[in-house]
Specification:
Length: 91
Amino acid sequence: MSSLRSDLTPLRLVWLGLAIAGAVLGLWASGPQPVSVRPTEWLAMGTLALWCLIETSIRRNWAALFALPALWLGIGCALPLYLFIRSRRIA
């Protein structure tokens, strides 16, 4: 458990907090009203998905794939989650 605490740097905590905030906002925004995604958001989500897939194939960073389902909640959740995963200490 202490290795987990030492791995949570202030920057990683910021990424995690932003991912949680993005998930909450994504769930809140997808309430009863129809959600429309702007073309720039589609582009950003597609870019992040491509980046995650390339990162996985080149670096074998399988954890990066967790950001793909988070795209369902929006780029505001998926991008900080990806950065949180990406910024972990490599053993």
